[in-house]
Design brief:
With 225 residues, the protein is an alpha/beta fold. Helices cover 43% and strands 17% of the residues. It has a seven-stranded mixed β-sheet with strand order 3-2-1-4-6-5-7, sandwiched between helices.
């Protein structure tokens, strides 16, 4: 029996975390780790109430740090496949099976969810920021992917053990791409749906222009330091 664990990094997501966890459960995945990254609301309590395993950071350490904590916990649980997804409801658990199928079949060790960018449903600024992120990732790490900032990804246990990142914030996503190239890890991209809601777009800690520039700076800094 292949064990799949879903890791959800969360920061002040009490309004939606139960719906996100329940969506994962409804699609057949019961091993769920929510990493409460120093939330000031009751994100952790809400996650526990719907059956997730909760890990809490005392302070807000960043998305990358929360994912790394979740990955380490999933490895301790002897997970064969680890899926990461965002906590704000933009990802849909119905896409998880498409992500893990290539790993189960032995075709690759990492699957990156690639968001389908429809201008009618996705803010143009999101599309532009994604294009810039892809370009910067390629320039720094010489690995082209169609969605370098996607948070919906799947890793085999082997890949999770090989990937070693230093980034604690949003630059974590691009560092994973660097590690894929560095270790010559076989990967695939599969299309995923994305659901941007007024709630997900209103979160002050989500990627905006200022955070995007900080992310690019951290990517360059980690490369040269």
């Amino acid at each position: 029996m292949i064990k799949t664990t879903v890791v959800i990094p969360a920061y002040n997501e009490s309004a939606v975390i139960q719906a996100v966890v329940q969506d994962v459960i409804n699609h057949g995945f019961s091993s769920i780790i929510v990493v409460d990254d120093g939330s000031s609301d009751d994100t952790g309590r809400q996650a526990l109430a719907c059956g997730a395993l909760l890990i809490t950071h005392r302070f807000n350490r960043g998305k990358g740090a929360a994912i790394k904590t979740g990955l380490e916990a999933a490895k301790l649980l002897k997970s064969d496949i680890i899926v990461t997804m965002d906590a704000d409801g933009q990802h849909q658990a119905s896409d998880i099976n498409a992500l893990i199928e290539p790993i189960i079949a032995g075709r690759c060790d990492v699957v990156l969810g690639s968001r389908v960018w429809r201008p009618s449903t996705v803010p143009k600024r999101k599309i532009m920021k994604n294009m810039i992120g892809n370009a910067v990732t390629w320039l720094l790490h010489r690995q082209w992917v169609t969605d370098s900032q996607s948070g919906l990804r799947a890793y085999s246990r082997r890949a999770a053990c090989l990937i070693d990142t230093q980034a604690d914030f949003y630059d974590y996503d691009s560092e994973v791409i660097r590690e894929i190239r560095h270790h010559n890890i076989n990967f695939m991209e599969v299309p995923i749906t994305v659901r941007y809601t007024p709630y997900s777009q209103s979160k002050p800690h989500k990627q905006n222009l200022a955070n995007g520039l900080k992310t690019a700076y951290r990517m360059v800094w980690h490369l040269i330091s």
